[in-house]
From TrEMBL, chains A, B:
Keywords: CBS domain, Cell membrane, Magnesium, Membrane, Metal-binding, Transmembrane, Transmembrane helix, Transport. This is Magnesium transporter MgtE. The chain crosses the membrane at residues 283-303, 309-336, 357-376, 382-406, 418-441. GO terms for cellular component: plasma membrane. InterPro entries: CBS_dom (IPR000644), CBS_dom_sf (IPR046342), Mg_transptr_MgtE_intracell_dom (IPR006668), MgtE_N_sf (IPR038076), MgtE_transporter (IPR006669), SLC41_membr_dom (IPR006667), SLC41_membr_dom_sf (IPR036739). Residues 137-200, 201-257 form the CBS domain. GO terms for molecular function: magnesium ion transmembrane transporter activity; metal ion binding. PANTHER family: MAGNESIUM TRANSPORTER MGTE. It is found in: Cell membrane; Membrane. Homodimer. It comes from Halanaerobium kushneri. Acts as a magnesium transporter. It comes from the Bacteria. Belongs to the SLC41A transporter family.
Length: 449, 449
């Protein structure tokens, strides 16, 4: 992989040295995304020079596949006319994404320069939330009337196919333009010429409204093994489609987001972020963590008199808090994935809560027993062992219950359950863990000193 | 969603009460996966009775879309002949997956009962690792010779289309059966009748070997926006294809796996696991955690004399350890996702390591300053503030470096970086955090008491 990109980079440098226009052969032999990847490793001035050696259509292909940063680098050195020229080879939804990156002034200027029809489509798309079905759909679908005969449909398709990037699912509408079904190209191909699309189509199709969240769209596509899902407006009219390659991007993005959010990293931070971006992305979360860490510190501070009499408590207390945090995060992972995959059934909530509580008690008892034994051997006081045994059971019980309740509560409040779940949880397990262990120690202090 | 499934469940119960064969209309109106979902919520005896009301072909459709547990429930109440009958409506790769679930004895018996050709294909597929390209590929591809004219190709396709579930990418081979390109059905449709496939095909196609890990396959499909990827053997001959819906399953599975592994949950545990399964899945990890927690305890125990003189240290020390753990997990999330998405470039390793170290120092200084101030205000001793400030910088520096190095080291050892990364990391940040903070306290003890 890396070698392939390096090779393309060398060839780009060759073209640049010779100031020679890029050969069509070379474009065919290399995937636009690989060229984009190679380009992104070059300096801005070289990128600029190389774009001038490309046909606009090829540049548009590469541009579409580029990461945001490279797209901005390329746009910076082009005037509005050149940009409009690139746009003319691109799909409306990709143009919309790029306009979304630009300052409002530049965006308006470009929209003014575009053909009126195209501008209208793009303006319309800009109106949807970026993470909704409308925000990720493309308007390049194929819609035929249900009364067409297959031979007529085939003729239409033959005419359109070379020009548009149609996909192999054709949508079918009634006379009121309402979406009523879909038919596969291969079915049209193999049926009687005189058969109507209406008789051939599948009328039980999965569709989504434009305002549905992209995560829900992805769940539907994954569940029903779709390669394309139609997007309809309130009147049931087809306004766009979402293809499976865009769904994969959504799934990857949402998964990264979940993992990042759970651990307090900004969703925009990628592994090649700059130092400044990384600090900016992570420092706010560290301060939130610090605030909750102080809650734990204040809890311990209440028991300083107990610790000063039995210093062993200071050594043992991180075990109670830490094990609670670990157990709770296990529950958290299961519940967050369950929500993301649409598996958690809210009706059975109390059963699952009870199960997590039981897991907490059992795992707490098992690990607490071992912990108690080791502490007894270390300090020769079996009351210390009993106290930590009890504290572990209680803290893991709490951990299991909160690991389950926190993400579900956030979810029902409309907050992303991945966000902040972990921090709420460890705050609970730290504070409660220290409190219950040191509290038990104070209660039985006479047996410990 | 839930209502839809409940509705289907009611209708299944209706059919069961009336002991009436299921209507073809009903099958067409309901997606097999929804029927499977509704079935999985019924008792085994009802499932068994309902399967008898279905045409074998419809049962096969539902069976293919079922979760493992439901598949096993269905198979349990069928004899070998009935199972073979179901299999006859299924793709070889799906049959292979199911045979993989069965005890070896039952598997052999079923293979003996199958048609010899089919059995051979399945036996062959069983030979591949379940998580390799060969393990997830299907053998239902469409391969045509490059010398065919498009009109001949179309005739062939028309004949095959109604019988097989072909997809719209047709692969092209040379006279030695070697895969040389691919062509879209729509391109065949819109080209001259006399044109050869050779002149129409894209010869720069992305393909994988059968032994490639499924995660790599998913990366390729996602990167190049493919809807199907061909699988070849060592001689370059097409032996199967992987369609994008299976890739989505791979991506979902690998993501769940990463999140679970990071937090010590067995990859097989879903949100509806039983209590026993959950305990069994999570307890081993809790004991590993316990072992590392004791490393932290032993570290603190070395400094018990210091703590007994300055009890404030016991209250403050969880901050140093905890903040290190949080910072390290942020780095970990970024690196693990970077590896999973194929973004981490090993050449630039030292640059990224340096960046993470710098982020650690900066975030450590920022949060350490605030922590030091608050502790000074709490205990009126500014040496305590300075000590924790220094300890935080050092521990977050270590956290950033290990958060980066641990997953990359595991990766280069051939171990999944998501597995155990978090536990190694928090062990380091706990032990080092306590050690550096309490060590500094001992050094400057005279200023603290």
């Amino acid at each position: 992989m890396v070698e392939k990109i390096d090779h393309i980079k060398d060839e780009i440098n060759n073209y640049l040295n010779k100031e020679e226009n890029v050969k069509e052969d070379w474009i065919e032999d290399n995937h636009p995304i690989d060229i984009a990847e190679a380009l992104s490793e070059l300096e801005a001035s070289k990128i600029n020079s190389f774009t001038k050696l490309l046909e606009t259509e090829d540049l548009a292909d590469i541009f579409e596949e580029s990461e945001k940063d490279l797209q901005i680098d390329i746009l910076k050195c082009k005037n509005s006319e050149e940009i409009i020229e690139i746009f003319s080879h691109m799909a409306a939804d990709d143009i919309t994404d790029i306009l979304g990156l630009l300052p409002i002034q530049k965006r308006k200027e470009l929209l003014r320069h575009m053909k009126q029809d195209d501008a209208l489509v793009v303006k319309n798309l800009l109106g949807y939330d970026r993470e909704s079905a409308g925000g990720i759909m493309t308007t390049e679908y194929l819609l035929l009337n249900k009364n067409l005969k297959t031979i007529e449909a085939l003729q239409k398709l033959k005419k359109i196919a070379p020009d548009t990037e149609i996909i192999d699912t054709i949508f079918v509408s009634d006379d009121n333009k309402k979406l009523v079904g879909s038919v596969d190209l291969r079915d049209i191909l193999s049926s009687d010429d005189e058969k109507k699309l209406e008789d051939l189509m599948d009328d039980n199709i999965i569709k989504v409204s434009a305002d549905v969240d992209q995560e829900i769209v992805a769940q539907q596509v994954a569940k029903y093994d779709l390669t394309v899902i139609p997007v309809i407006n309130k009147s049931g009219i087809l306004i766009g489609i979402i293809t499976v390659d865009d769904i994969i991007d959504v799934i990857e993005a949402e998964n990264t987001e979940d993992l990042y959010k759970m651990h307090g990293v900004d969703e925009e931070e990628s592994s090649d972020a700059t130092l400044f971006q990384s600090v900016k992305s992570r420092l706010p979360w560290m301060f939130i963590n610090l605030a909750t860490a102080f809650l734990a510190t204040f809890t311990v501070a209440i028991f300083e008199d107990v610790i000063s009499q039995v210093v062993a408590l200071a050594a043992a207390m991180p075990i109670v808090a830490g094990m609670g945090g670990n157990a709770g995060t296990q529950t958290l992972s299961i519940v967050i994935r369950g929500i993301a995959l649409g598996e958690i059934d809210f009706k059975d909530n109390w059963k699952l809560l009870l199960k997590e509580a039981m897991v907490g008690i059992i795992n707490g008892a098992a690990t607490g027993l071992v912990t108690g034994l080791i502490l007894y051997l270390m300090y020769g006081n079996y009351y210390l062992g009993i106290i930590i045994f009890m504290a572990m059971i209680l803290n893991l019980l709490i951990a299991g219950m909160f690991g389950f309740l926190i993400p579900l509560s956030l979810q029902s409040l409309g907050i992303d359950p991945a966000l902040a779940s972990a921090i709420f949880l460890t705050t609970v397990t730290d504070v409660f863990g220290f409190f219950v262990f040191l509290g038990l120690a104070r209660t039985f202090l006479i047996y410990l000193v």
